[in-house]
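On to my pick:
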Amino acid sequence: MYLEKKIIVVMPAYNAAQTLRQTYDEVRQQGIVDEIILVDDGSRDNTAAVARSLQGVRLHVHARNLGYGGNQKTCYRLALEAGADIIIMIHPDYQYTPKLIPAMASIIANGLHPCVLGSRVLGGYALKGGMPVWRYASNRFLTLAENVLMGAKLSEYHTGYRAFSREILETLDLSRNSDDFVFDNQMLAQILWHGFTIAEVSCPTNYFAGASSINFRRSLKYGFGCLAIGFQFRLAKMGLLRPKLFPQRPRGAISK
């Protein structure tokens, strides 16, 4: 608990057996997490077995692989059902350090922002942490384009380290989102559409052989998907398009 807020960490997992225990140990060391929910998306290794050996981890196993977005949908549903006030998503591949959990939770718990991203770009950590140059260049290009199209000023849209208030997850209709990697981008676009503010904290990252990643072909598909979402957002704001992701009258819109 932090400021009487129940904090739940969710881990969307796929073939994360080698790094799960290390991530779990560091999450527990932060001392404020009430519950950890891990959703195993049909892993081909022993991710589920490792999760069962970790005290206090609530495990949910998909009978088949639903995709990264489909995994997150289950994560957030289970977190809300468990009564979470603050939900923090961190990948169990140890690419992102759990040591930022207290900082991210405090921003939400103190009412400063309802969404916090762990940015690999702030502080110049992306390349230092081993991000491939081509991936960094595409990240910067997509972020610039999306900031222009959606009127935001984020340092990156593509981090997998995120914290949300309960209000955000109760407001967004995630069922309309993709089950693939572009889910992350759709979710941020929906958050901006509904008028929620987003904070960022600088996050060191660690790229290594066991860290999850997508190949070049899927990266291209993801990039074009992100641009499509940005254009849909802009056209919806102009009243020229009504995509399902962006309802005509945003629910739960706030002004800050």
